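Schema walk-through. Below, the input block comes first and the output block second. Nothing else is stored per chain. Lengths vary across the set, and this one has 220 residues.
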Amino acid sequence: MYVVTLDQRRREAGDLVPVLLRRLADLETVVPFQRARAHAVQGITADPGAAVAAALAGLRGGAWSVGIGVGPVRLETATDPEGRTGLRADGPGTVHARHAAESAAGRVPVRVTADDAPAAAQAQAVLRLLGRIVTERSDAEWRVVDLLVPGARGQQKVVAAELGISPQAVSKAVARSLWQEEQDARPAAARLLGLCEPGPDGPSGGAQGSTMNPSESIHS
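--- output ---
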């Protein structure tokens, strides 16, 4: 499992959680992304590609830090002090997620932690390269690439017509944004993230714990 925690770094920008949740809404998850604390979002997925997409969505604009914990996760029903029921996550994956979230820092603040530290470091390195691309993309370039569909052909003319600009301008924006390079590298990042998962006979981690206390459980 991949436990992804996103913490808002730029508090002066106001509450950015609703905007981020809209970006993450269509990702395949075991536990959907939702507000975990006042300025934090968390979700759990079994798909490394979805974890990569979530990380890049958070790194966009530089307002969020991203921690990804990889490992087994147990989900159980929990009740908070106010009587609300939801899901509580425990296990090595949540422990790694907490450590990752606490240590995510730097120019591209993304951290991956797992029992297999070398594998986690390799996945993190590629995610930081991809993160550098999305953090440095301009607003004008985002207006173009947000309309693109990976793998579709002949779409630049459609995008140009929708934005009221020339196809040449779209082509230049795509090239400057390194959008195609990002799309080509996403599967590599997902593959490296997948290699962080413990094998059936591998270690399952040490101490167990939850990323949230009962009052911060994932509510239904």
